[in-house]
Specification:
Chain A: Its main location: membrane. Chain A: This is Branched-chain amino acid ABC transporter permease. Chain A: It is found in: Cell membrane. The structure holds 2 protein chains of 2 kinds. Chain A has 11 helices and 2 strands; from the N terminus they run H-H-H-H-E-E-H-H-H-H-H-H-H. By secondary structure, chain A is mostly helical. Chain A has a domain of 204 residues. Chain A has a two-stranded antiparallel ribbon with strand order 1-2. Chain A is globular. Classes of the chains: A mainly alpha, B alpha/beta.
Chain lengths: 296, 411
């Protein structure tokens, strides 16, 4: 294994890591604020990709408008779900929302499959890279797709903005307060349930965004989120449930580790993350960046 | 008193039922278990292979059943088709096969995408003496070490794919390869066959093949490896959605522009449709059939399209052909008894819209037929929707499959 190739694998790992980070960031925001384990996250990621494809088919919209519109549409759908279904389960055991979101996942996947098959006669849709980002960058002896570098950059920006908003702004303070102690926050005249809906929408929107970003790389098909979500949950657990910094750092780290691992010994690629999870849980049961329950 | 009354009702019913079935059997001159031929299409109704076989295979089997009943008056209303999902899992396939045979009295199992599922179902059917027509499963183990007296391998197999494509690509100058394959029975077998075919034609592998997880979405590390190794051909043994991902990323990483060609082990029409044919343009593959092969194929395709709303894949056309071949064997054997049908199938020579110059080898139950090496056309060259293949070569039935002398099959 030459160093050049290894270096490229690091880039490659950062791309996969970008998807893990975006998805686990959404999961972390939702779990951290609302204590919802959103199993539907993978399906919403898929909906992001599918919406981008559908917008192109129906209105001829390209990648750039879809990059803005699809997350908004998915986010709005998320808010609707939170208002109509999830909000009824607050105060009940977490297993209820797990079951609900899992059921919704199956429903969404099959629905999309039916739409694809009836409207487009295939269940996996073509989606092309925007012109400006097609082609490759020459990095010495190997070349790397421009589009993948763009994914890494954009993800980093999004993660930074999210972190900044939650930790450093007044909006973030309100969000944190309303989840930390809803009744006190309410007494300040703040409509907590509206904020909760908003936060859920943003978290879900991030999944939608990841989906749009994935469309030019992976095949757009109903089950594209199913596999990814399992790794993403492992990332969230390693990083510490609900920790924003943890999910982003771990997302990228796991991506890189898996890619480098795969370059050295290919069969390990898919198991490495779970091995890592087991080790972390043994040493730090609350995850790398997580605080033990009760100390928050 | 009550008991006697019950007997009085039951006994005549039983006698009538028995008489009815006897007269029915006499009328049609064939002995059918529970007075019907039940065809179990065991397939992937929901997963990665559901488009290329799945519901379309069930529809194709139903069409064959309908056509058979329409032309054979004695069997009117007697052929039933049941479609069951095996989820591409060997254990599910095994359970479902047993359940269909025991509880639904299925007389034959059909289709079986995913080699591991095909092998599992074949094992179950062997124990119960029920014929199996594997159409969409590809492993050559079905006609070698894992062969069974009741299993017939229709349409294609990994030897035929590798022999056709490996030979054609290597002879056209693609003599150095790097191959990736999905790590399960089908992929492992296809990689072995492909490697052998390449070497036999004077080609070489630049590095040993890499196994990838199955299913898998990200193939970038293998593509990067291909970039640095610079083989003439990047060989992919993936199928279905996995293949779509490989080809998408093959284009994304610009391998084509760097002069690294694409060699595809197993290609279905649906894989091309999922990505647009330009992504595949120039790639060679081997298929047992395609819809616009000739007028006979087009005529059948028109019927299928009317019934199913889409053009058939070669797997679905194969299921029709296999179902019809099975039903005709039942008709010749005048029975749907497993052993009788197997006897009627063995050594049979026929030709239909799908299987040309077909022969069912008695030694290993390989169904040989003419197959075609094809090249994917660029979109600009397509004359109509779905016109994706240009025929490069026809490989005659006798040469397309592993010679009978090489089979490891012992019934």
């Amino acid at each position: 294994m030459n160093t050049q190739l290894l270096l490229i694998q690091v880039f490659n790992g950062l791309v996969n890591g970008a998807f893990y980070a975006l998805l686990s960031l959404g999961l972390a925001v939702i779990f951290g604020m609302l204590r919802i384990v959103n199993f539907m996250h993978g399906a919403l990621y898929m909906l992001g990709a599918f919406t981008a494809f559908a917008l192109g088919q129906a209105f001829g919209l390209g990648f750039w408008p879809a990059l803005i519109l699809a997350p908004l549409i998915v986010g709005a759908l998320g808010m609707l779900l939170e208002r109509t279904l999830l909000s009824r389960l607050y105060g009940l055991e977490p297993s209820y929302n797990l079951l609900l979101t899992f059921g919704l996942t199956l429903l969404t996947q099959d629905l999309v499959k039916q739409v694809m098959l009836s409207q487009f006669a295939v269940s996996s849709a073509p989606y092309t890279t925007p012109d400006i980002l097609t082609g490759v960058v020459n990095l010495g002896s190997v070349v790397f797709p421009k589009y993948r570098l763009f994914v890494i950059a954009l993800t980093l920006v999004i993660c930074l903005v999210t972190w900044f908003v939650i930790e450093k702004t007044r909006v973030g303070a309100i969000i944190r307060a309303s989840t930390e102690n809803p009744s006190v926050t309410r007494s300040f005249g703040i409509d907590v349930s509206k904020w909760v809906t908003g936060v859920f929408g943003v978290g879900v929107g991030l999944a939608g965004l990841a989906g749009v970003l994935a469309a030019p790389i992976y095949s757009v098909e109903p089950y594209m989120g199913a596999e990814l979500i399992i790794t993403t949950f492992a990332v969230v657990v390693i990083g510490g449930l609900g920790s924003i910094l943890g999910s982003v750092v771990t997302g990228f780290a796991v991506g890189v580790l898996a890619a480098v691992g795969a370059a050295i010994y290919p069969p390990i690629a898919n198991t490495l993350v779970f091995v890592l999870m087991a080790i972390v849980l043994l040493v730090r049961p609350s995850g790398l960046f997580g605080l033990p329950e009760g100390t928050r | 008193m009550k008991k006697a009354k019950l007997t009085a009702i039951i006994a005549p019913t039983l006698v009538t039922a028995a008489l009815l079935s006897v007269t029915a059997a006499l009328a049609q001159g064939a002995k059918l278990s529970d007075n019907a031929i039940k065809i179990g299409v065991l397939t992937d109704l929901s997963g990665v292979y559901s488009e290329l076989s799945g519901p379309g295979s069930v529809k194709a089997a139903q069409m064959a059943a309908d056509d058979f009943m329409a032309t054979n008056a004695a069997y009117k209303g007697k052929v039933q088709v049941i479609g069951v999902d095996h989820q591409n899992k060997a254990d599910v396939a095994s359970n479902k096969a047993a359940e269909m045979i025991d509880r639904q009295n299925v007389d034959v199992l059909m289709d079986l995408p995913t080699s591991s599922a095909a092998l599992a179902a074949s094992e179950v059917a062997k124990g119960k003496k029920i014929p199996v027509m594997v159409v969409t499963g590809g492993t050559t183990a079905l006609t070698n070490e894992k062969c069974s007296k009741y299993t017939f391998h229709y349409a294609y197999d990994n030897f035929m794919l590798a022999n056709g494509t490996g030979t054609a690509v290597t002879k056209r100058g693609g003599n150095s390869w790097y191959i990736i394959y999905p790590n399960y029975a089908f992929g492992q077998d296809l990689d072995r066959q492909m490697t052998a075919a390449i070497k036999e034609n004077g080609g070489k592998l630049v590095t040993p093949s890499d196994a990838t997880p199955f299913p898998n979405t990200d193939f970038s590390s293998y593509l990067l490896k291909a970039q640095s190794l610079k083989p003439k051909i990047f060989g992919t043994m993936q199928a279905g959605n996995d293949l779509v991902n490989v080809v998408k990323q093959y284009n994304e990483f610009g391998l084509k522009k760097q002069g690294i060609g694409l060699g595809i082990g197993l290609l279905f029409e649906t894989d091309v449709a999922a990505l647009g044919q330009d992504a595949y343009a120039g790639a060679l593959a081997t298929v047992p059939w395609y819809w616009n092969l000739d007028q006979r194929s087009r005529d059948w395709t028109a019927k299928f399209e009317k019934a199913f709303g889409k053009k058939p894949t070669w797997a679905q056309a194969g299921v029709y052909s296999a179902t019809m071949t099975y039903l005709q064997a039942v008709s010749r054997a005048k029975s749907d008894n497993g052993d009788a049908v197997v006897k009627a199938l063995e050594g049979y020579r026929f030709s239909d819209f799908f299987a040309r110059s077909a022969y069912i080898r008695p030694q290993d139950h390989r169904v040989t037929l003419d197959v075609y090496t094809v090249q994917v056309k660029a979109k600009a060259q397509a004359k109509e929707a779905g016109d994706i293949f240009t025929k490069v070569a026809t490989i005659p039935s006798a040469k397309a499959f592993a010679p009978v002398a090489e089979t490891k099959c012992k019934f």
